[in-house]
C-alpha cells in the first residue's frame, strides 16, 4: 500500500502533466514555490524530499483544489472510472441512441447555443461568421459535477493553430461567460484590441497579465497594468471538442 508521501508526489506529477506547458517552472509559479523545491517533491528525483501535509494544503488552496485532494490516489491505474476495454462488446456500443434536432430535451438535459462567430487561436485573428448553426446537448449531472451555470454557457468555433494540440483548428469550445477571475494557466476567451482569441492567462505581480499560446512557436504577449484597458476577459474555456475527420465533400 502506498504511503501519503508517495501519493502526494504522484499527484504532483499529475498536476505537472496537466499544466499546459508541462514545465516545472510554470507549475511552481502557480503554487508560489521555488522550481527547485517543486522538483525535489516530484517522484524520480534522486534528492526527493517528502511533501509535508502543511505544504500540500497550501498547494491545494492556491490551485483551488478540495482539501486533502493531494492525499487521495488519483493515479489512472487506480481509477474506478477507467473503461474496461476487454468487457466492452459490439452489442454494448449498438445500444447508443441517436437523437435528432427536432427531438425534445429531456428533463435532465439542456441545450447550449453555438454563437455564430469564429474565435481566433492564432495571431490577431478577427471574429468571422460561422457557416453552421447548431446546438449542443448536455446532461444536468455533467453541469452540476463541474459547478457550471447553464445560463452562462455558450459554444464558439476556433480558427487557428496557436493552441494546438490541446485545442485544434476547427474545434468547438464551451465558454462560461462572465468568469473573469484569472487562475494561472487556464484557457480563457479574451478580447485584445479588436481580436477575440483563446489563450492561457497568467497574472503578473503588477496587476497585468501574460497571454500565452500552447504552440511554442507563438511568443508570449506581456500586458502591463497600464495597458489592461485593452484586454477583456470574456469567459473561461471549460471544454473543447474536435473532429479529426474532414467533412465529406458533396
From TrEMBL:
UniProt KW keywords: DNA-binding, Transcription, Transcription regulation
Sequence ranges assigned to domain Peptidase S24/S26A/S26B/S26C in this UniProt record: 119-238
Signal peptide annotation: none
Gene3D superfamilies membership: Umud Fragment, subunit A (2.10.109.10)
Name assigned to this protein: Peptidase S24/S26A/S26B/S26C domain-containing protein
GO molecular function: DNA binding
Taxonomic placement: Bacteria, Pseudomonadati, Pseudomonadota, Acidithiobacillia, Acidithiobacillales
Amino acid at each position: 500500500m502506498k504511503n501519503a508521501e508517495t501519493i502526494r508526489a504522484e499527484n504532483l506529477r499529475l498536476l505537472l502533466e496537466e499544466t499546459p506547458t508541462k514545465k516545472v517552472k510554470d507549475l511552481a509559479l502557480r503554487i508560489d514555490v521555488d522550481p527547485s523545491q517543486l522538483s525535489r517533491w516530484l517522484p524520480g528525483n534522486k534528492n526527493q524530499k517528502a511533501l509535508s501535509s502543511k505544504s500540500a494544503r497550501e498547494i491545494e488552496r492556491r490551485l483551488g483544489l478540495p482539501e486533502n485532494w493531494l492525499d487521495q490516489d488519483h493515479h489512472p491505474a487506480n481509477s474506478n472510472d477507467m473503461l474496461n476495454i476487454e468487457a466492452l462488446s459490439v452489442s454494448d456500443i449498438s445500444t447508443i441512441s441517436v437523437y435528432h434536432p427536432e427531438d425534445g430535451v429531456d428533463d435532465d438535459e439542456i441545450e447550449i447555443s453555438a454563437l455564430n462567430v469564429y474565435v481566433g487561436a492564432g495571431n490577431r485573428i478577427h471574429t468571422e461568421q460561422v457557416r453552421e448553426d447548431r446546438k449542443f446537448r448536455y446532461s444536468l449531472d455533467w453541469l452540476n459535477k463541474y459547478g457550471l451555470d447553464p445560463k452562462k454557457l455558450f459554444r464558439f468555433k476556433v480558427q487557428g493553430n496557436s493552441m494546438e494540440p490541446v485545442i485544434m483548428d476547427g474545434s468547438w469550445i464551451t465558454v462560461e461567460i462572465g468568469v473573469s477571475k484569472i487562475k494561472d494557466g487556464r484557457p480563457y476567451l479574451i478580447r485584445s484590441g479588436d481580436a477575440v482569441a483563446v489563450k492561457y492567462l497568467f497574472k503578473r505581480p503588477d496587476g497585468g497579465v501574460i497571454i500565452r499560446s500552447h504552440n511554442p512557436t507563438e511568443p508570449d504577449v506581456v500586458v502591463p497594468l497600464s495597458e489592461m484597458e485593452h484586454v477583456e476577459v470574456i469567459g473561461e474555456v471549460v471544454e473543447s471538442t474536435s473532429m479529426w475527420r474532414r467533412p465529406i465533400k458533396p
